[in-house]
């Protein structure tokens, strides 16, 4: 569906370091694909190129078997800064999105209701708040039923319910055969991806089922307490399914490790109640993108990737091979 | 699909009270010199080739083009349509032609009104004068819209303002008058193209060529 070969590009500098893509080669098949990394790592830049909005300085991208510009009507792209037709209503925008792609008209009331934005249908885009505008742009992209969806941080600025609802809708599009590509810096997006590519300063790594993603799936709670021993004893006494997977006692603190931050919070609450330990502070620690990059780099250097790529990783300290 | 592309520029024009109020205000302003001409029993072409062709026509079309492009540059104006799957060139065509049609309509209405109000005893028959003025107003309006759409491809309101200023300064006389609408519109409305002995037919042809050229350049610069 999307094939990039030797892709090099530099994005615009927006008050910070410019995004880069450096010799990126990857293939994206139908299904849910994640491009994990910050904006500077090049995920959004890759989406812009795949949407035909930015021309790479070297290399090539094929989308649906041809250049992106030729497949424009079969691609829906939602950048981080969305631009909606400000003079049209939300309902008109969703209809227009299908008309411009020569798709037959289709009722969009149910989709808007599922995404929790049915109340916006008659509002003009110019009156929408930023988060509302992003929700509408995502709804328009889904409603267009294109073969490729390119979404930059679709879960950002969303209300509490929206990520789960949007995740379900995106899963349906992927099941229908679409390539849904999400660029995100979140290590815990509310969607289980079939494929994940980690981008680090423009270099891409495949991290399917490997350690870095496993790291991202775990949460930590650092508890600052003068009663570390009593608290850890109470945590250890919890039933197996309620206790944290790992427990580390330090000088004046305890670190709880588990798959879910809420489960850890519940365990801590129960332990504090039963031990009457005093708690000074609770600091949640989620896996960061930088931590993932570091893990991926060290893993690439150790792993069974082709020797040339491993050598490059050792020499440059920031390279890899997508395969 | 092409019809769908016009929904946004038409909505930008039609769903704004500011557009309507500005058009009415400029039309009333164009009628002031026309009433003065009528009171002094002068010729309609005095009002047409003066205040109408040199001030109100360019300014009303300037405002309309800006409204079609949402006050910004062409690239930003078409971005919402491109985001919904339109090709940039097609989106630019819809913006440019909507501005040209709106400019032509406003120019025709204003030209006809000014000709009707300023019509004097020494002028050609009223119906003929009104129709001719409407035709020239329409062509002039379309030409100005194409010029401003082209200006919008390199700097939005600033680009449009630069070309408006160039039309006032360079379009008045000399070889620059050949390249801007001002001199040709004035020539067609009974004035003269300063420094050149061009027939009205030649001015008509030149205005048509300029309209097509500026329109094509506006679209050509927005292809990607």
The CATH architecture designation of the largest domain in chain A is 3-Layer(aba) Sandwich
Poorly predicted spans of chain B: none
Number of helices of chain B: 11
What is the end-to-end distance of chain A?
A: 17 Å
The CATH H-level homologous superfamily of the largest domain in chain A: P-loop containing nucleotide triphosphate hydrolases
* Count of the separate structural domains of chain A: 3
Strand content of chain B: under 5%
Most strands sheet of chain B: none
- CATH class of the largest domain in chain A reads Alpha Beta
Mean pLDDT of chain B: 88
Gross morphology of chain A: globular
Segments of chain A where pLDDT lies below 50 for 5+ residues? 209-213, 303-323
- Beta-strand segment tally of chain A: 13
Query: What's the structural domain tally of chain B?
Result: 1
| Neighbour order of strands in the largest sheet of chain A | 5-6-7-3-8-9
What is the SS-derived class of chain A? Answer: alpha/beta
Strand content of chain A: 15-25%
- Listing every helix as H and every strand as E from the N terminus to the C terminus, the arrangement of chain A reads EEEHEEHHHEHEEEHEHEEHEHH
- Sketch the topology of chain B as an H/E string, one letter per element: HHHHHHHHHHH
Quick synopsis:
With 323 residues, chain A is α/β, with parallel strands linked by helices.
Description:
- The complex is a heterodimer of chains A (323) and B (224).
- Chain A is of the alpha/beta class and 323 residues long.
- Chain A is built from 10 helices and 13 strands.
- Chain A folds into 3 domains: 2-213, Rossmann fold (3-Layer(aba) Sandwich), CATH 3.40.50.300; 218-286, Alpha-Beta Plaits (2-Layer Sandwich); 288-316, no CATH class.
- In chain A, strands 5-6-7-3-8-9 form a 6-stranded mixed β-sheet, with helices on both faces. In chain A, strands 11-12-10-13 form a 4-stranded antiparallel β-sheet, with helices on one face. A 3-stranded antiparallel β-sheet of chain A has the order 2-1-4, covered by helices on one side.
- In chain A, α7 (228-236) crosses α8 (261-275) and α9 (289-302) packs across α10.
- Residues 209-213 and 303-323 of chain A have low confidence and may be disordered.
- Chain B has one domain (2-220).
- Chain B contains 11 helices and no strands.
- Chain B has helices at residues 2-5, 7-14, 17-39, 44-68, 74-83, 88-118, 126-151, 156-170, 176-179, 181-188, 200-220.
- In chain B, α4 packs antiparallel against α6, α4 (44-68) packs antiparallel against α8 (156-170) and α7 packs across α8 (156-170).
- The chains are: A alpha/beta (323), B mainly alpha (224).
């Amino acid at each position: 569906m999307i094939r990039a070969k030797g892709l090099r590009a530099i994005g615009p500098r927006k008050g910070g370091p410019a995004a880069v893509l450096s010799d990126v080669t990857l293939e994206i098949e139908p299904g849910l694909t994640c491009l994990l990394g910050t904006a500077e790592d090049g995920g959004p830049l890759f989406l812009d190129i795949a949407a035909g909005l930015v021309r790479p300085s070297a290399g090539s991208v094929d989308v649906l078997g041809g250049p992106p510009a030729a497949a424009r009507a079969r691609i829906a792209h939602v950048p981080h800064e969305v631009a909606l037709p400000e003079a049209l209503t939300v309902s008109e925008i969703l209809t227009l999105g299908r008309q411009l792609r020569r798709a037959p008209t289709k009722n969009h009331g149910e989709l808007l209701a599922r995404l929790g934005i049915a109340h916006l249908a008659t509002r003009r885009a110019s009156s929408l708040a930023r988060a509302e505008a992003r929700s509408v742009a995502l709804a328009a992209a889904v409603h267009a039923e294109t073969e490729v969806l390119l979404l930059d941080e679709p879960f950002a600025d969303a209300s509490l319910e929206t990520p789960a609802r949007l995740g379900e809708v995106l899963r349906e599009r992927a099941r229908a055969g679409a390539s849904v590509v999400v660029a995100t810096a979140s290590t815990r997006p509310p969607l289980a991806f079939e494929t994940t590519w980690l981008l680090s300063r423009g270099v891409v790594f495949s991290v399917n089922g490997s350690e870095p993603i496993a790291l991202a799936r775990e949460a930590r709670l650092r508890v600052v307490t003068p009663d570390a021993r009593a608290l850890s004893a109470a945590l250890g006494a919890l039933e197996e399914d309620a206790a944290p997977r790992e427990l580390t006692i330090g000088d004046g603190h305890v670190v709880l490790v588990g798959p879910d931050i809420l489960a850890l919070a519940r365990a801590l609450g129960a332990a504090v109640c039963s031990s009457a330990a005093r708690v000074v502070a609770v600091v949640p620690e989620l896996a960061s993108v930088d931590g993932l990059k570091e893990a991926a780099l060290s893993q690439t250097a150790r792993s069974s990737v082709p020797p040339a790529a491993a050598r490059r990783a050792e020499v440059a300290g920031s390279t890899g091979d997508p395969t | 699909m092409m019809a769908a592309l016009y929904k946004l520029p038409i909505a930008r024009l039609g769903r704004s009270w500011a557009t309507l109020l500005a058009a009415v205000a400029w039309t009333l302003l164009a009628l002031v010199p026309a009433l003065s001409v009528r009171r002094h029993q002068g010729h309609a072409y005095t009002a047409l080739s003066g205040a109408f062709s040199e001030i109100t026509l360019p300014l009303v079309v300037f405002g309309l083009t800006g409204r079609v492009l949402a006050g910004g540059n062409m690239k930003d104006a078409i971005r919402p349509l491109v985001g919904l799957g339109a090709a940039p060139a097609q989106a630019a065509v819809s913006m440019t032609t909507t501005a040209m049609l709106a400019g032509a309509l406003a120019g025709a209405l204003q030209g006809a009104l000014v000709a009707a109000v300023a019509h004097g005893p020494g002028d050609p028959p009223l119906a003929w004068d009104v129709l001719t003025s409407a035709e020239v107003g329409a062509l002039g309006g379309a030409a100005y819209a194409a010029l401003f759409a082209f200006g919008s491809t390199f700097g939005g309101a600033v680009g449009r303002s630069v070309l408006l200023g160039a039309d006032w300064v360079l379009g008045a006389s000399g070889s620059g008058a050949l390249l801007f609408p001002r001199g040709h519109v004035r020539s067609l409305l009974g004035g003269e193209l300063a420094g050149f002995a061009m027939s009205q037919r030649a001015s008509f042809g030149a205005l048509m060529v300029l309209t097509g050229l500026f329109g094509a350049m506006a679209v050509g610069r927005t292809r990607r």
